[in-house]
């Protein structure tokens, strides 16, 4: 499996901003979809945002207009810019990647990064 690592979580006040980063460390991986999910205590993991082929984006209704997903120039890094954060955005955020590595499909998850929105 391709190693995936997230960073950028932390504590922020309501209305604040955070930027999450996720990097897939494998030079042979060709990534087609990179996504951010989140899981709050007691809740199921839910999709927050995804980007396909570096162009097509999709957002959950709860974050549309506040969060933006982009990929880096090397196309192995995905960012999640989160603005106007709300307490209900508090969760562990996970990065997921899909694609191919040497002709075989890959689907990998990171370990997660915690985001807490609180005054």
Note down, in words, how this protein is organized.
With 119 residues, the protein is mainly β. The protein contains no helices and eleven strands. It is 0% helix and 60% strand. The strands form two sheets. Strands 2, 4, 5, 6, 9, 10 and 11 form a seven-stranded mixed β-sheet that branches. Strands 1-3-8-7 form a four-stranded antiparallel β-sheet, with no helix packed on it.
Instruction: Pick out the low-confidence regions.
Output: none
Largest sheet features: 7 strands, mixed
Strand content: over 45%
Q: Give the mean pLDDT.
A: 95
Spell the H/E element sequence.
Answer: EEEEEEEEEEE
Shape: elongated
What's the N-to-C terminus distance? 39 Å
Secondary structural class = mainly beta
Q: Count the E strands.
A: 11
What percent of residues adopt helix (DSSP H or I)?
under 10%
Task: Please state the CA-atom Rg, rounded to the nearest Å.
Answer: 14 Å
Number of helices: 0
Features of this protein?
four-stranded antiparallel β-sheet; 11 strands; 0% helix
Describe the secondary structure blueprint for this structure.
Elements (H helix, E strand, L loop, with lengths): L2 E5 L2 E3 L5 E8 L3 E11 L6 E7 L3 E4 L7 E5 L5 E6 L8 E11 L2 E6 L3 E5 L2
Parallel strand pairs: 2-11
Antiparallel strand pairs: 1-3, 3-8, 4-5, 4-9, 5-6, 7-8, 9-10, 9-11
């Amino acid at each position: 499996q391709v190693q995936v690592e997230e960073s950028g979580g932390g504590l922020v006040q309501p209305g604040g901003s955070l930027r999450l980063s996720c990097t897939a460390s494998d030079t042979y991986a060709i990534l087609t979809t990179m996504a951010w999910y989140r899981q709050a205590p007691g809740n199921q993991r839910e999709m927050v945002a995804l980007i396909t082929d570096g162009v097509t984006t999709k957002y959950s209704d709860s974050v549309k207009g506040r969060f933006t997903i982009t990929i880096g120039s090397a196309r192995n890094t995905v960012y999640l810019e989160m603005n106007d954060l709300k307490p209900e955005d508090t969760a562990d955020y996970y990065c997921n990647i899909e694609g191919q590595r040497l002709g075989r499909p890959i689907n990998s998850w990171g370990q997660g990064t915690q985001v807490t929105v609180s005054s």
